[in-house]
Amino acid sequence: MFRIDRRAIAAALTLLALAPLQAADDVLPLLPLSLDELIATPVTTASRRAEARTQTPAHIIVITREQMRDRRYKNLADLLEDLPGVDFQRGTRSTQFNHFVFQGNAGNNKLLILLDGVRIDHPAGGKIPVADNFSLHFARQVEILYGPAAALYGADAVAGVINIITDKGGEAGSKLAVGAGSFGSLDGDFLVSGKFGGVGITAGAHDQRSDRAPLDDYYPRDFAKVAARTFGGSIVVPADQREDYKGGISSQSQYLRVDVGERLTLGFYRNRFRSLSSTGDRPSSVLYLDSAYWDTTLETWQARYRADLSPTLSSETLVDHSRYQLDPKSRYINIFTDFENHGYDYAYGRRAGIEQNLSWRPNDAHSLQAGLGYRDYRAIETPDLPQPYDTGKSPANQGMNYPNTSLPLQIFEARYRSWSGYLQWQAQWRPDFSTVAGLRHDWYSTYGGSTNPRLGLVWQPRAGNFLKLLYGEAFRAPSPEESYSAFGSFDGGGNPIGTFRAPNPDLRPEKSKTLSLTWDWRPTRTFNLIANAYQTEVENVIITRANATPIQYIPGATLTATDSKQNGGSDRYRGIDLIPQWQSHLGGAWTADFWGSYSYVEGYFREVNDGPRLEQINIARHKLKLGVTLRYQDWLTLTPRLQWIGETTTGAINRAANDRVKKTDAYALASLHVGLHKLADERLSLYVDIYNLFDKRYHAAHTSSSGVVMQAVPQQPRTLMGTLEYRF
Q1: Spatial distance between the Cα atoms of 454 and 425, rounded to a whole number of angstroms
Q2: According to the model, what pLDDT value does residue 23 have?
């Protein structure tokens, strides 16, 4: 059933009474910003203060509300897929659903996701679904910062930072959208904004669900009806009794922002995503069942207080609380559970923190920023469970045994904390030359400290030309998901089967160093070209490796083989992104906004420091992404988009000397987005979105080397979606 969360409805009803207080001309603009305005749009992510894009040494892209609307970036997955330097694989992971690589950095645990500067991804740094759950219906703009940002943001800002920027409470405008499309797809969202005295309030929510295409109809060879067998060879379901493929998803999110005057901001954000845990697995190794799913929830509260301590010194105090939880009914039914009903899983993460920031600007040429922070963490990680986790009991009182044994099941709970301090100095030495120098130290009670610098300069050799050089270091904190990852099973006689995954609480952080050079060229007022070249080295990479001596982490059991997450690998990659944008008047009432990117990346990794060079996984060496928004006055938009993705490496990399590197084939993919605006007293818009316009059959690369997954995962056929949006 399609429905909006009850809490979101309550917020809507409350704020609908305030909506009429907004002026009638507050309808969101339908015309895009000029290139002048786009380049001059202030950004805050690069330096934690407002500045023009050309003033920061970092490579940063800004996507405005109007661009998101016209290009139909309805969620963060849509936006990421179209970004330069990003390899995006949809529907390939049983727990994350989507997977992406950001300028060579694989996995979403190396990219921070912020909402108005506050982290809203996994509170303890684990991997999460980045899909329809991160709706952008309430965003004013999205800022994408490329490269390391640990000198400002601390752990996990290795590949970059994505910051979703919103309007102040009461200034966002109000709207309602509903849509329906192919394969049972339904979605809807609303945003309600109003002011009451000195208090501005904006609230919104979205709800989405889709059965998605029956891929066994479109890819019969990939989803052949074969017998499901255990590792021992026993047939669980004969081939002639196999179920049809299922791959449905659903997501919800809720958003609230309250601004009390100019000093105090309160915020709440929550999202949820559900997909089947059979995603990306071979038919022979899994059962496609609606009851076997993965369901995650992320929730963040924040309070921010700003004060001017003097004409040159300002203060900001930030308090936030974030929670991640996996639904206790989440489970697998696959070859690893012998297709039996004991593959439940549970995970929990919580972060609570406070940060005090100061900004001092003694004159127009220099500014100093400093901050101190403290955070407290708690996490729970379980192995496969024979029954759902009881959230009303502590981890030590679950009363479960490993299946087929009388051994108490080991559930891990971690409690730790961190402190941080940073300092950044920005200087404008001449009108055409500026520098930035920053340093941050983070200390964790689990593994100690990490110090990360950032040094950069911006030089304008001539009008319309900016050169930016940036060196930065960053670290990725080992997540409880990695430190306490543990699983394995026992046979009917209570004997261990094969290799067990053992925990390793002594993991150290990964450490990266990146050097980048950016050329921002604007020869005319309607054309802009950005070239960003980068080189990154990562040490202490966390990989899965066999233990020379089995780790006996289960009291009463004798394990004959274990592996665990360990430090020891290294990554090297370099690349370049070319990003043109051009605005043009085509004649009459027609205008066009062209954009695109070409990306090249190459690199290798080693599983041990002195081991052989192995090709990077899930990366297409060449990627081309193009798009244009054709506009007739301000009532019709036509936006075709095209992506050409070169052959992409899968997780089945040449670990053995005689094993070949497996790759998915190159493919070209087109979409078309049509918008009719200013209907129904100029407040109604109609959108028609056609994805995979030419009904291409193509595959995305899987990240695992396991033989039970599809190395090449079939993707969705042509899909249509129609949406009505009313602004009030």
Answers
A1: 10
A2: 35
Rounded to 5 degrees, what angle do the CA atoms 194, 197, 201 make? 30
pLDDT in tens, 100-140: 999 999 888 999 999 999 999 999 998 999 999 999 999 99
Q: Which residues contact 45 (CB under 8 A, 6 or more apart)?
A: 60, 114, 117, 143, 145, 149, 161, 163
Count other C-beta atoms under 10 Å from residue 310's C-beta. 8
Token pair listed for 526: 């309607």
Q: 235: exposed, middle or buried (C-beta count within 10 Å: 0-12, 13-18, 19+)?
A: exposed
Determine the 3-state secondary structure of 107 from DSSP.
coil
Residues in the chain: 728
Q: Are 382 and 389 in contact (CB under 8 A)?
A: yes
How far apart are the C-alpha atoms of 126 and 103, rounded to whole Å? 20
Calpha distance 552→318 (Å, rounded):
43
Give residues with Cβ within 8 angstroms of 25, minimum separation 6: none
Q: For residue 198, what are the CA distances in angstroms to 11, 236, 260, 262? A: 19, 65, 6, 9
Q: Residue written as tokens 């609570």?
A: 352
pLDDT tens per residue across span 244-261: 999 999 999 999 999 999
Q: Write the CB contacts of 667 (distance below 8 Å, at least 6 apart in sequence).
A: 644, 645, 696, 698, 699
Query: What are the backbone angles phi and psi of residue 285, rounded to the nearest 5°?
Result: -110, 5
CB atoms within 10 A of CB 161: 26
CA distance 84 to 530: 11
Tokens of 264: 């105090």
Q: Is the pLDDT of residue 19 over 50?
A: no
pTM recorded for the entire structure: 0.94
Closest CA to 135 of 107, 94, 175, 181: 175
DSSP codes joined into one string, 513-565? EEEEEEEEEEEETTEEEEEEEEEEEEEEEEEEEE-SS----STT---S-EEEE
Contact (Cβ atoms closer than 8 angstroms) between residue 120 and residue 421: no
pLDDT at 2 over 50: no
Give the Cα-Cα-Cα angle 129, 663, 158 (nearest 5 degrees): 45
CA angle at 444 for the pair 393 and 395, rounded to the nearest 5°: 10
Identity of the amino acid at 136: L
Say how many C-beta atoms besides its own lie within 10 A of residue 22's C-beta: 19
Contact 683, 727 (CB under 8 A): yes
Distance CA 162, CA 85 (A): 14
Buried b (16+ CB within 10 A) or exposed e, 273-297: bbbbbbbbbbbebbbbeeebbbbbb
Measure the CA–CA gap between 506 and 148, rounded to whole angstroms: 24
Q: Please, how many CA atoms are within 13 Å of residue 482, restricted to the half-sphere of its CB?
A: 22
Among positive and negative, which fits the CA dihedral 48, 53, 57, 62? positive
Give the side-chain half-sphere CA count within 13 A for 21: 18
Give dist(CA 5, CA 258) in Å, integer.
Answer: 20
Identify the H or E element spanning 68: helix 65-71
